[in-house]
Amino acid sequence: MEKIRTHKDLDVWKKSIELVTEIYEITRIFPKDEIYGLTGQIRRAAISIPSNIAEGSGRNHDKELVQFLYVSLGSCSELETQIIISNRIKYIDGKVLNDILIKIQDIRKMLLGLIKAVKKRNS
C-alpha cells in the first residue's frame, strides 16, 4: 500500500465529500421545522464521514487512522438509519432512498478495505 500523502488522495474521502453535497441538496426540501432536528442530524452524520477520514489521515500513527476510520463507519450507519427514517416519514422517496443507500454502502466497503490495508501493512 502506498503512503497516503493527504486525505485528499483517498478515493473514499472524495466519494464521501460528494455524498455530503448530495445530502445537503436532499435536505433542503425538508420542512423548515426540522432544521434543528432530523435535517441537522443527517447533515452532521454525513459531514462526519469525510471529516474523520481527514482527521485520521492527519495523525502520525496508523492505529489512530484506523480508529478514525471506524468512527467514519459508525457515521455511515447513523446516516443510513436517518435516511431510512426520512423515507418512512415521506421526506424522501424510494428512488432517493435507494440511491443514497447504495452510495453509503460503497463508502462503507471502501472504508473497510482501507482499514484492512492499513492493518495489514502493520502486521
In short:
This protein has 123 residues and is mostly helical. The protein has helices at 11-27, 38-57, 62-88, 94-121.
Q: What is the structural class?
A: mainly alpha
Helix tally equals 4
Strand count: 0
Q: Percent helix among the residues?
A: over 70%
Shape descriptor reads elongated
- Could you tell me how far the N terminus lies from the C terminus, measured between alpha carbons in angstroms? 13 Å
CATH topology: de novo design (two linked rop proteins)
Please state the CA-atom Rg, rounded to the nearest Å.
15 Å
Sequence of secondary-structure elements: HHHH
**Unreliable sequence segments:** none
- Largest beta-sheet characterization: none
Mean pLDDT: 94
Give the percentage of residues in beta strands: under 5%
State the name of the first-level CATH class: Mainly Alpha
* CATH superfamily caption: 23S rRNA-intervening sequence
CATH architecture: Up-down Bundle
How many structural domains does the protein architecture include? 1
For the structure shown, list the relevant keywords:
123 residues, mainly alpha, elongated, 4 helices, de novo design (two linked rop proteins)
Describe the structure.
The chain is mostly helical and 123 residues long. The protein has a single domain, classed as de novo design (two linked rop proteins), CATH 1.20.1440. Helices cover 75% and strands 0% of the residues. It has 4 helices and no strands. The protein has helices spanning 11-27, 38-57, 62-88, 94-121. Helix 1 runs antiparallel to helix 4 and helix 3 runs antiparallel to helix 4 (94-121). The protein starts with 10 loop residues before the first helix and ends with a helix. The mean pLDDT is 94.
